[in-house]
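dumping this here before i forget
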Amino acid sequence: MLWSPDSKKIATFQQDQRHVSNMYLVSTNVGAPRLEEWKYPLPEDKKIIQIERVIIEVDVPKVVRLKIPSDDRRGTLSDDIASGSPYDDNEWNEDASKLLFVSTSRDHKTEKIRIADATTGDVKEIFEEKVATQYESGQGSINNHFLHQTNEIIWYSERDDWGHLYLYNAITGKLKNQITKGAFVVTQLLKVDETNRVLYFNANGREPGRDPYFSHFYRVNFDGSKLTLLTPEDGNHNVSLSPDGKYFTDNFSKPNVPPTSVLRNMQGKLITELEKTDISKLLATGWKAPEPITVKSNDGKWDLYGLMFTPKNFDKTKKYPIVNYVYPGPQGGGVGSRNFASSRVDHQALADLGFIVVIIDGACNPDRSKSFMMHVMVI
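structure:
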């Protein structure tokens, strides 16, 4: 459920799964087995779980049903409509008179952006996006946003093969302009400054010569002008904004380089260095960092990035068997975080037994272009 700003209304849904197949599981335990049963949509089911969207007026009390047919229980970020917030793809305007929401089809190929009148339940369809593969509203968080004061919508799309932000008119449903563009992926929209019409966001792959999975922090005007890099150092940046929105802390590192923490203002000016991690005691134990590596995909089309772990007593004159650790996703790769880490499961321990351990984020993993994610690599 999603409370309105004035706490007088709740946006939620009534769920219907009576028509959905039953799934069963028999426990294995001492004594008699226990039969578990729950609803689970199967490919043969004509419909998945359905939701009827409603608005609850708390003080009256009263239920206002939105005047649209039931929706598939789907979200723009995952199959679960509560994967990233209390109620994904729903957003109130300031006075709780309107509710923007997104209806997602069963196959995630059709998105309908709608605005409901919270008093009458009338629904207006603003625009629709259809994709050939699967729509996602971001990488880890939903980036769509309702700018109710100016009747605009910030919309995330991979329509040009890269994850970017677009600005729509919330009354006409017409595209006003593409906000970000280029061969990089916007991952998370962190701050919307409606007064100055500036967006602050994380993105991957824009800085040449760096690991394309490194996250950097940027600002850009609503009209797409003055795109500015706010975290210039080569590394993976983890940003946290101050409560007043005037500053941010930036913790950046690499898998083989320990973190540095700095404080910057929202124009990217360095205020002070806060801390630099001392790993001297870690190095004294004989610890060895993994080596970042780059290889070509088998068709020669893509540069693939990963890590290589070698034995602590590695001898370049000897040959070693290679263990290839594979986690093909599609929601994530094998390398995982690009931050510094003193250990990554048992990869170094395995290498110390006399192996070279290799992890590659192969084609079909996210956080790069849509065509990269949809590419099937033949091994």
